[in-house]
Amino acid sequence: MLSGGKILSGTDVAKEIREKLKKDVAEIRRQIPTLVPGLAIVQVGGREDSNVYIRMKIKAAEEIGMYAEHVQLPRSTTQDELLATVKRLNEDPSFHGIIVQMPLDSETPIDGHLITDAVSPDKDVDGLNTVNEGRVAVGDMGGFLPCTPNGCMELIRRSGTPIAGSYAVVIGRSKIVGTPMSELLKWNDATVTVAHSKTKNLNLLIKKADILVVAVGRPEMVRGAWIKPGAVVIDCGINSIPDPTKKSGQRLVGDVKYDEALPVASHVTPVPGGVGPMTVAMLMQNTVQSAQRVARRLIEMEFRWCLKPLPLKLTEPVPSDIEIARAQEPKDVAVLAQEIGIIPSEVSLYGTKKAKVSLKVLERLQYEDDGKYVVVAGITPTPLGEGKSTTLVGLVQALTTQKRCNAIACLRQPSQGPTFGIKGGAAGGGYSQVIPMEDFNLHLTGDIHAVTAANNLLAAQLDARIFHEATQTDQALYERLVPAIKGSRKFAPIQQRRLKRLGIEKTDPYTLTPDEIRRFARLNIDPHNVVWTRVLDVNDRYLRKITIGLSPTEKNLTRDTSFAISVSSEIMAILALATSLEDMKQRLAKMVVAFDKTGAPVTADDLGVTGSMMVLLKDAIEPTLMQTLEGTPVLVHAGPFANIAHGCSSIVADAIGMKLVGKRGYVVTEAGFGSDIGMEKFFNIKCRASGKVPNAVVLVTTVRALKMHGGGPIVTAGAPLRREYMTENLELLEKGLPNLLKHIDNGLKYGVPVVVAINAHGTDTAAEHELIRKAAKAAGAFDAVVSNHWAKGGEGAADLAQAVIDACANPASAFKLLYDIELPIEDKIIKIAKEMYGAGTIELNSKVRDAIRLYTEKGFGRLPICMAKTSMSLTGDASVKGAPKDFKLVINDICLSAGAGFIVPMCGEISKMPGLPTRPSIFDIDLNTETGEIEGLF
């Protein structure tokens, strides 16, 4: 018989554990300053006993430097509402642990087991999810251990009694304590018997126990005489019994008669102050361990995704694009999003193969480092295109699957005009494509349609306003613009903005003077100086010039106007350049749609349309997530034409990509056409707006295009290539090299390394490739690499990927813009023409000079320049090939895109509405009504 047992103080042990956890949290914060371990405590109702426990947990969390949030729901909460709350917390990366406080104090029936199983196993710090319980049952301690049993195990260890080989008795079989306690003891090599209140001869069984754990819920049921001398006694019970000596009239006791047990046992836990504090400590420990797991993934894996590529089944000869695309089953886009670190609440699924990505990603990852930034451009192409998009896709496939880097491709959404016109598709080609290609090439997620709707809503309001001002008095116009509703007039917020622009500080509509009413109500739009046109996403030559207002109802208020293709709308350029919803709203508001009769600009905000356009575009600002043939991520967004607008994918898509790939990853984005057009605008417009600094340029060239520039026969879309392009011809190729060298020089002017990608075709020869490589390197290219991604996918672009990795690691990169934004408009035009095109002089007609003078007077002189020029030549004449010098560039028109934030000089004849050719792709595109498949895209 022992003289007396020791008290196992859970309070003291828990204090030691909290001190250690405090150091662990500090270490997490040292390694990743933005990572704070977070615990969400969900409570339904407001039971006071639950409130006491919650306050204890929050206090413990705060003591160790964790963040704890009490998510309190009303008693009226339904099961579905509670499940939705748990789902939201599961998806919130700021919480590493979630507990649902039991019992649920709800007016409606709620299945508690269903709720605990709804908590993600990765955040189930209570250890009550069936998955975590199952792990314990089979001896897998890699999940979260249930808090109370784990706390009991820690107290047993502190007693010094060896667990292995001991005989343990657990009284109680509850899911929360008894059952998992027996499993933990068993897997720590104790021999375990589980008993309960109905076990026969319970006292005799207890008498054999070296370790006794009691969790039966009966006050002081276990007597001292039942206990084996020297046993360790862990009392998990907490019961309230009457005690007239206490002020409350109640006293807390355990399931063991403490006063009787202490003289017999070697160690006994008190109640309170025993198991209770340990439960809270283990809860904190589990939450910190969860945060440590996140930290390890971020540090040890260096932000590397757990991405599973899709294998390619390469065949020769290479099948058609549509055959290749259809042979590859894309992975579920929700899985892809998870693989690259997007949480479920940040994606809106459009079926299973495409999804919108929320801008909330940028907020969540705002403190993370950006990845490397690579832009793909080309030389001056043939009408067939030189595979710029295909190269971009192949490069990203190679970076991801061959070089094991995080990499995202950022591409523009194709317009339906070219899809049904000549190109037939723009998803890449061969084994370097975006899939499903049908979705990519057609409606996708409706962004172009949203731009079309917003553009035409503005056009409709503009013409309606001209009509109403022409047919109403000042007072009648004012009363309709500010109608009396229930006897009171009130300015809309957008009208208040107009008043401020007019210098009218009044807010009461009844106090405006007649002059103020006139100034407010009348925009006085000059019908002969309207610059806004309607748009449509098809090629339709007969809409290049139209007359509107011919209906008798329009009272002879006719005017000539036109349609443009939707992707040429300034709204599309804004979508690509906006950095946030608020930025997009401000840009839309500033769009100049016309000039009044005094020459002052009239904006979309003056017409009151800004808010309505935002409603139509609210989803369009989110990029669309798709994938390549190899299952690597692609962000598809915006589609501004490069010969009309700035021709680049969106700022937000690039920004989201650079956060998702991490500091060791790569975002490869496109700039339309050649370095003279898309790349120049990428640097001077897009990078100026985003503030992002590119690390490298990939310049795509082909043997075919260089032979054309060397004087080869005309290349025509749809016509067979001439013999010169199908056989080796080094002389012709060498004559065309100056075009490539000019584009290399253009890239180097920005202080960025240029990697030349020679997009290989089957008719090329090794000698032709080597000639290009040597010339490119001699001209200052960082590297020149032959890439066979069309035939081999990522494997064929492995060398190109390595060259890009090496270029991005080059410390010599010192990015600089081409011109100072403060330069006068004409000087900026001259700078671009001379430096990028090789022009000697520019010619501005009187109309252009007058417009430049007006833009400067109205405060638009500091905007960058967005040159509208043919993509088929470095000059303004599409027929001129090679790299001519000192030519005259004629600027025959100029327009203002104040919302997009640039001025557009037009070189030569530029049409914003393409026409259909004699035999468009329309003839080939069809729907197979038996299979439901789209045919004819290529």
From TrEMBL:
GO molecular function annotation: ATP binding; formate-tetrahydrofolate ligase activity; methenyltetrahydrofolate cyclohydrolase activity; methylenetetrahydrofolate dehydrogenase (NADP+) activity
Domain Tetrahydrofolate dehydrogenase/cyclohydrolase catalytic: 8-126
InterPro entries named in the record: Aminoacid_DH-like_N_sf, Formate_THF_ligase, Formate_THF_ligase_CS, NAD(P)-bd_dom_sf, P-loop_NTPase, THF_DH/CycHdrlase, THF_DH/CycHdrlase_cat_dom, THF_DH/CycHdrlase_CS
Alphabetical list of SUPFAM superfamilies matching this protein: Aminoacid dehydrogenase-like, N-terminal domain, NAD(P)-binding Rossmann-fold domains, P-loop containing nucleoside triphosphate hydrolases
Stored CDD domains: FTHFS, NAD_bind_m-THF_DH_Cyclohyd
Signal peptide span: none
Cellular component terms (Gene Ontology): cytosol
Pathway: One-carbon metabolism; tetrahydrofolate interconversion
Any one Gene Ontology BP term: tetrahydrofolate interconversion
Domain Tetrahydrofolate dehydrogenase/cyclohydrolase NAD(P)-binding: 146-293
Keywords attached to this entry: ATP-binding, Hydrolase, Ligase, Multifunctional enzyme, NADP, Nucleotide-binding, One-carbon metabolism, Oxidoreductase
Domain of life, per lineage: Eukaryota
Catalytic reaction equation(s): (6R)-5,10-methenyltetrahydrofolate + H2O = (6R)-10-formyltetrahydrofolate + H(+); (6S)-5,6,7,8-tetrahydrofolate + formate + ATP = (6R)-10-formyltetrahydrofolate + ADP + phosphate
Coiled-coil ranges (or none): none
Enzyme Commission number(s): 1.5.1.5, 3.5.4.9, 6.3.4.3
A Pfam family reported for this protein in Swiss-Prot or TrEMBL: FTHFS
HAMAP family xref list: FTHFS, THF_DHG_CYH
Similarity annotation: In the C-terminal section; belongs to the formate--tetrahydrofolate ligase family. In the N-terminal section; belongs to the tetrahydrofolate dehydrogenase/cyclohydrolase family.
Subunit comment: Homodimer.
Name assigned to this protein: C-1-tetrahydrofolate synthase, cytoplasmic
Biological classification of the source: Eukaryota, Metazoa, Ecdysozoa, Arthropoda, Hexapoda
